[in-house]
Amino acid sequence: MTTRETRQTFCGLCHPRCGLLLHFENGKAVRVEGDPDHPISRGSICARGKLMVDHLYHPQRLNYPLKRVGERGSGQWQRVSWDQALDEVAEQLDRLRTQFGPETLMFTHGTHRTYHWPGRRFFNLFGSPNMCGANNICMCPTLAVEYATYGGFAGSDVRNSQCVVVWGRGASQSDPILGYQALLAAKHNGAKIIVVDPRRIAEVKQADQWLQIRPGTDVALMLGWIRVIIEEKLFDRDFVKQWTVGFDQLRRAVAAYPPDLVAKITWLTPQQVTDSARLYATTRPAAFPWGFGIDKQGINATQAARARSILRAITGNLDVAGGERLGWPEPLGRIIGDDLLEMNGALSAKQRAKQLGAAQYPFFGFPGWERNVKANSRLPYQYMHPPQADMTSMAHIRAVFGAVLTGKPYPVTAAISLANNPILALPNSRRVYQALKSLQLYVVSDYYLTPSAALADYVFPAASTVERSELWLVPGFCVACPQGLEPLYERRDDYQFWRGLAVRLGQQDHWPWETVEQVFDHRLAPVGLTFQTLIKSRGLFGRAEPKRYRQFGFGTPSGKVELRSRIFKALGCEPLPVYREAYPDLVADPEMAVQYPLVLITGSRFMPMYHTEQRQIPPARQSVPDPLVTLHPATAAKLGLGEGDWARITTPQGSIRQRVHLSDSIHPRMVDSQHGWWFPEREESDPTLFGVFESNANVLCPDSAATCSPEIGSWPHTALICRVEPE
Ligand SMILES: Nc1nc2c(c(=O)[nH]1)N[C@H]1C(S)=C(S)[C@@H](COP(=O)(O)OP(=O)(O)OC[C@H]3O[C@@H](n4cnc5c(=O)[nH]c(N)nc54)[C@H](O)[C@@H]3O)O[C@H]1N2
Ligand SMILES: Nc1nc2c(c(=O)[nH]1)N[C@H]1C(S)=C(S)[C@@H](COP(=O)(O)OP(=O)(O)OC[C@H]3O[C@@H](n4cnc5c(=O)[nH]c(N)nc54)[C@H](O)[C@@H]3O)O[C@H]1N2
Ligand code: SF4
Ligand SMILES: [Mo]
């Protein structure tokens, strides 16, 4: 007789943690559907979430710890026990720490796929300041900038807004369940929609205005908006007078950006510049959510985040319903935050000072973090947590990989990658590869043997989200994500990986909790809950209260919104937003313009893939079998390329091949290349490494200082120059 059972669990194949019902037959998961009782996703799941069962039992999943036995990258592995693997890794880390100092260990970060405070806690206690990776470009720079500007990270209340600015964000592909549904709900309620995107994305169908901006020029348009808003007195006068500093300097700075100049820079018309500025400033409440299209533009990314936060403030949209929510609503702020679990106090000033890259990019290193923390200390913890170090204080990849390759300023000899596939995620992929190959010890924790994991000494098998539990805490709500089944084979949750290493390296006193659920109980204790009671109540929701800055002020040095940032100024960064031309050489050197006539954007999200994942999942791969590069039909025709042809894409950094897709949704002067492509069906061993260099967009992306933002060192994944030719 068949036994059937259904368990509540969650999907973590991207950020929102949608509720799942996992159906079992004879103890095996056979089917998944959305959990209609989940308080946030309410039964919806996306095309990727529907593949959870394929992911859970995939034959290429890592099920046991592996130890390299042949040459690095030769594809020869031995299955070992967790104890043996952890013992040996700990022993080698201890030896390298004694020989070179704790700073010899680095970490590479991907996006937030799992809880990351245990990693930070481990690094702080180990004594290394060198965690680096995608945090320099994804969301975290914005978070750091918003702390410096108004003392916290704002969450856009899109659903209740009257005007939504969709700027560099394609939620229809990147956040189909929460973000896109919120936009559609706002539209349904009559909100005006402005889309600023070089491509005619699905969101444009909902839009009142679409600005097909030239990639990388967004700061110029934002400065143009600020100028229109100030000149035409469309700003919130009371708020500006009472709650901001630096308005006069801002007014003078933006005077240099009249609509006709902005139009020239951005490939828009002066009318578009003024119309969109007026629509945004006069329709309240307005929400201007974060979008990766801004953070991914390298040299301009940081100042664009600054300009956006200024626009939100001067239009009076901070901390109002339908605008930009600030702070933790009662009682959520009482829950112990990631910032406290990180144990940042454990890393000494001497070790902090060794953080690689911080001298060049102090705002995103400990100097900036410490200033943000100090400014935040004027606010009660339950209202505004200090910035998490893991999101606002990172070493810089160029400096860290440089230290691996050259031994300067000191040798970096060991690395851990957990929930990250650095050769595909980080720019200048060939240098990343060289650096990983040069390590004395490389440790990876993942679901699959990725091209990066193929270079490791030890690989640890991670439990899928349905095989573990999680506490999903964001300003607004806290939801318990229950485990659906015990981990299969010898997969373990990431807490066990970190704790396993920690207790072997003398940190046992700081890891009193044997399971991650015990940590969740500890976190929830201040609100009188346990993880299990939270599962039963389906979540804890905050009681939103508008404009709490009137009670607490802002967590900045002045206590006000800093249109001119004192923290930026103190660290030698531009305190007022400025626009920088990404390719001044194109004007100076006409030969460059001939060599690279097209503008390249990379990594526009597409379903059902998530970064470098799903390439081995048959239904996903059948829907997108090959890496695609999108060209305008007129451009392709001139190049002699048709739909489905293989094309070569070349930038000053490198060259790859992808298959042509034709669409008039893209500007004729632009090229859109998918990121994250490798071929799990190909040979593993180096130099093939699953074809990791063939179609990997990060072979095209640079990490040089000239292309990175001077404040944070954010590197570009868009606004690049390229040429495209038939293969
Ligand atoms: N399917 C899928 N979903 C994902 C992910 C995934 O890999 N796949 N990744 C997740 C992660 S980590 C992130 S960060 C989010 C990001 O998700 P989004 O914020 O939606 O970011 P992108 O899709 O990278 O880019 C958004 C838009 O920016 C536009 N753009 C490119 N360059 C510029 C520019 O210079 N200026 C302007 N104004 N627009 C530009 C692109 O055309 C694109 O439509 O997605 C998350 N969701
Ligand atoms: N060219 C270009 N490059 C980009 C981007 C772009 O737009 N263009 N986007 C950038 C952005 S925004 C980001 S955030 C990064 C993302 O970069 P990453 O987050 O590094 O994404 P992946 O490279 O897919 O690596 C994630 C790996 O973690 C594994 N994994 C997933 N969940 C878990 C887990 O819970 N535990 C463990 N141990 N492993 C897990 C997956 O199997 C996968 O191999 O990429 C960046 N790279
Ligand atoms: S949006 Fe899709 S992939 Fe992301 S958590 Fe929800 S169901 Fe999973
Ligand atoms: Mo990201």
TrEMBL record:
Iron-sulfur keyword on record: yes
SUPFAM superfamilies with a match to the protein in the record: ADC-like (SSF50692), Formate dehydrogenase/DMSO reductase, domains 1-3 (SSF53706)
Keywords linked to the UniProt accession: Iron, Iron-sulfur, Metal-binding
Coiled coil: none
Matches recorded under SMART domains: Molybdop_Fe4S4
Domain 4Fe-4S Mo/W bis-MGD-type: start-end pairs: 3-60
Family designation: Belongs to the prokaryotic molybdopterin-containing oxidoreductase family.
Protein's name according to its UniProt entry: Molybdopterin-dependent oxidoreductase
Organism listed in the record: candidate division CSSED10-310 bacterium
